[in-house]
Amino acid sequence: MTLTWERATAGAHWMQLYETSDDLARSVTAFMSEALHRGDGTVVIATTEHGRAFAEALAAAGFDVPALTAAHRYTWRDAAELLPMLLVDDQPDPGRFDALVGRVVTQALDASTSGRVTAYGELVDLLWRQGRLDAALRLEALWDERIKQLPLSLMCGYGMPLLSPQLDGEALTQAAACHSHAGLAHDRGRLEQAVERALVIVLGAPMADALRPLILGTLHPSPLGNVERTILWLQRNLPARCGAVLEEARRSYREAV
Amino acid sequence: MTPPRAPDPPAEALDGLVVLHVEDDPNDVFFVAHAFGKIAPAVQLRRVSDGEEAVRYLRGEAPYDDRAASPAPMLVLMDVKLPKRNGLEVLEWMRAEPALASLPVVVLSSSTEPSDIARAYALGANAYVAKRSDLRELIELVRGITAYAALAATAEAIPPRSTR
After folding, report:
1. Nearest CB partner across the interface for B144, out of A203, A214, A219
2. How does the average pLDDT of chain A come out, rounded?
3. Do A202 and B112 touch (CB under 8 A)?
4. Reduced to 3 DSSP states, what percent helix, strand and coil does chain B have, rounded to the nearest 5?
């Protein structure tokens, strides 16, 4: 599903896949700009590098970030610093999550003029990058409890090179299934064209045409879009060809930049 | 570098392909057979109507012990809600059988519940598709299934391991 912020209603839990920090900054800034214009309290739990990039981009978009921060309308927490404090026995602890994240979210809600909170988080991304999928899924579940209790919409960033042979499709599927929506920080149209073109080159047009209804008709227990699902389908069902398709798609995607 | 091409059009690669359709609803049986007849008449479509029959067919047990009359399938197209042994139980059994662990299985179900879908994948389904009421859509879907079966038969496909 294409990410359209107007549809980021309270209760939405977005998975945002990204490959580069620049792509991510564009997406998060758009997400937060919409929320701030609406009067939401906003919370960003991101690495120092990303937090700075988002604040700079918001400032460039005309937001007075220091004033918003002072008014608790915009709160940044360092994800790398926060994460170890959330964990007990290597797993996210509900009590600590309440104390460290829940309170910040509540404070942002109190400061909002819209009666809503919009949050961006990459704690799960840090766990994901460490290969700790189980802990990431537990953390997603804790966020979900908050989303059920509060007028909160949440975007979770997941750094993931979709066109990489190293993509862990099973883990992506499990993580995506925790979310109500999925977006791509990539240029979705260009990515779709690149994958489509790669399919035709690698499989031949007749085979690609014939497979398409099955690939796109295959149901998935997650909100991932067509291009992500196509990649996962190939990885699962045609692994011998998937690498060549991804390689061709990567080349085509870069060429189109 | 130009990547290698896959085999050419499915129409040329379908001779001798065997698909086992496991379905108890006579209407669905009719529509699927119609779609295969339209798209891929060269495909040998075999049908059994419950989960236990499916297991017998796949094992090559009587009355399916004559492999000339009941050839081993290259792909199984299976409903979930089946008498005697449901489709997911059959799938689970297949994935535990070394000879069948890598046989492509496309689940064709009327359920679109995420939990059913997730369960089917966890048990090792290759694809999970919803039953179609539109014949044109069904024909397109069967076109895709035959293309996939053709690729699978040429060892292009390695079905997934169960992630349970």
Report:
1. A214
2. 90
3. no
4. 40, 15, 45
**Cα A228 to Cα A19: distance, rounded to the nearest angstrom:** 13
Q: Taking Cα atoms as reference points, which of B153, B159, B158, B160 lies closest to residue B7?
A: B153
By the 8 A CB rule, do A133 and A175 touch? yes
Tell the residue number behind the tokens 């839990």, with chain if given: A13
- pLDDT at position A164 is 84
All residues at 6 or more sequence positions from B136 whose CB lies less than 8 Å from its CB, including other chains: none
Dihedral class, residue A168 (left if φ above 0, else alpha if ψ from -120 to 50, else beta): beta
Residue with tokens 């040329």: B12
Residues B162 and B88: beta-carbon distance below 8 Å: no
Pairing of strands A117-121, B18-22: unpaired
Residues (pLDDT < 50) of chain B are: 1-9, 157-164
Question: Which of residues B103 and A187 earns the better pLDDT score?
Answer: B103
Sequence-separated (6 or more) residues with CB below 8 Å from residue A174: A133, A137
CA distance B158 to chain A (A): 6
Distance from CA of A95 to the nearest CA of B (A): 29
pTM, to two decimals: 0.82
Number of H helices, E strands in chain B: 5, 5
pLDDT > 80? residue A219: yes
Closest-CA residue in chain A for B10? A207
Residue B150: name the closest of B5, B36, B23, B16 by CA.
Answer: B16
End-to-end CA distance of chain A: 22
Q: Which helix (H) or strand (E) holds A192?
A: helix A188-203
- Tell me the residue type at A62: G
User: The tokens of A134 are what?
Assistant: 């189980």
